[in-house]
Hints:
By secondary structure, the chain is α+β, with helices and mostly antiparallel strands. Helix content is 61%, strand content 16%. It is rod-shaped, with a radius of gyration of 34 Å.
Amino acid sequence: RVKDGQFTEEEEAKIIKVIEEIESEHDDLMTKMNKQFAKLVEANKKAINKAKDTAELKKALLESKRLDSLVNNILVTAQLEQGEVANQLQSIDLSEAIDRWIEAFKERFPFKKVIKDIKPDQFVLGEPLLLQLLFNNLLDNANKYAPTDTPIHVLLTQVNHEVILKVIDEGLGI
């Protein structure tokens, strides 16, 4: 009861006690919220670090594959120059092989678009490793010398019983 805008001492004490309880609960709630927020921030940091680690590992793995391919290319080239590679001609499903090699290329260069038009069941007689080196070299050159935002087109077809492979980019050309 307010008399002349004044509370009694008892009422004032009750109001102060209620305010103190509210402040105490507010402080407890803020402390709990801060602790929960800190836990969320820490969990997010860990998730971000794990994602970064995973991304870095993927990047390192792709680079490792690229370097492995490069070393193999150099080794085979050296063996070819010294006449150490024997012709081991085999019947090769070039359609299936090119699909596989394009997928390997996409792993190394995930942001490069490759448009393929591959006629199935195109068999050729050749040395598998040398054909792979040839194709990888064509793709690598198309990737290296064409504008980054343009696709590479890979066409495999047959004309008059001859298998035709084309790797087309939008670079300036020779």
